[in-house]
Design the sequence.
């Protein structure tokens, strides 16, 4: 739940997002404009890996048998997730010709294969996924959820990657590297509502005052496109987001720089608290690690630093 402090911040939801997305759409369709975060500096669409690393994965009966009988009989797993249009959020996720691609999609499909199920993707916004797990709309949530203390109180986690919280800066940001959240003092930040990034900003709300610097200001968007557009048009200075995607974005979005990672945390699938689905997913991820299929997926997306050695159920948290 947002605090009264967070509500006082400059929060923009659907209407602002829609307006900025319309503006982003104009930039994206402007004949390979350099403002298009889905293109490289030459205006060409970057090559997206296409190799099939999932279809050959087989069901493991001993793991699938741990699922509830109704899930097994349905033959599918209802997964709440978010759309990631274009290529700006790769390698985590994106779309090519309307089809979802990315590291997380491959890993989710691979887990479903081990469980002998079809992944039934249902789309929402990031803030709606966790409540959707709690009210039973989704059986599993997958939207780059970092493991946090507050989240572990209401959902179970089955970890599958690591990711960090970092900053992408506009040209006006002259500091070469950020090592602490207080490095963001005095800047205009764009990030996602209901995210670990919002949690960290709220937990460190007095960081700037402690060191005698002006406070940051925050605008919240349910899609990354308005944030990257804001960096381009001067309305934002910083994008506080997942390190994995921001490092990729640096090479695709002109006049931006990846400023570094200030936290690192495990990322997991989420399920209802006490659901038997979470332990089955843990076993499925560990099966993929054992067989080498997990490694193949990471090799495809060229992000070796974000692997885990073993999946865990509700691991220790860092914040």
Sequence:
């Amino acid at each position: 739940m947002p605090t009264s402090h967070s509500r006082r911040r400059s929060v923009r939801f659907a209407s602002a997002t829609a307006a900025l997305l319309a503006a982003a759409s104009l930039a994206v369709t402007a004949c390979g404009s350099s403002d298009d975060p889905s293109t490289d500096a030459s205006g060409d669409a970057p090559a997206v890996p296409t190799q099939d690393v999932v279809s050959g994965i087989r069901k493991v009966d001993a793991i699938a048998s741990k699922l509830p009988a109704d899930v097994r009989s349905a033959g599918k797993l209802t997964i709440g997730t978010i759309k990631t249009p274009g290529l700006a959020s790769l390698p985590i996720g994106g779309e090519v010709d309307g089809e979802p691609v990315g590291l997380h999609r491959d890993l989710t499909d691979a887990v479903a294969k081990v469980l002998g199920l079809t992944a039934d993707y249902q789309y929402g916004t990031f803030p709606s996924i966790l409540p959707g797990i709690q009210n039973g709309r989704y059986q599993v949530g997958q939207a780059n959820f970092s493991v946090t203390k507050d989240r572990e109180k209401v959902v179970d986690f089955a970890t599958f990657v690591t990711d960090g919280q970092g900053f992408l800066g506009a040209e006006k940001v002259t500091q070469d590297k950020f090592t602490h959240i207080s490095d963001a003092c005095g800047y205009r930040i764009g990030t996602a509502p209901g995210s670990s990034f919002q949690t960290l900003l709220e937990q460190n709300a007095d960081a700037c005052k402690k060191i005698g610097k002006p406070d940051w200001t925050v605008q919240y968007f349910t899609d990354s496109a308005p944030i990257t557009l804001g960096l381009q048009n001067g309305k934002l200075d910083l994008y506080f987001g997942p390190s994995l995607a921001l490092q990729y974005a640096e090479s695709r979005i002109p006049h931006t720089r990846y400023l570094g990672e200030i936290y690192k945390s495990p990322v997991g699938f989420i399920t209802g608290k006490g659901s038997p689905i979470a332990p089955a997913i843990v076993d499925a991820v560990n099966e993929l690690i054992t067989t080498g299929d997990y490694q193949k997926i990471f090799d495809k997306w060229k992000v070796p630093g974000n692997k885990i050695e073993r999946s865990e159920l509700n691991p220790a948290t860092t914040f």
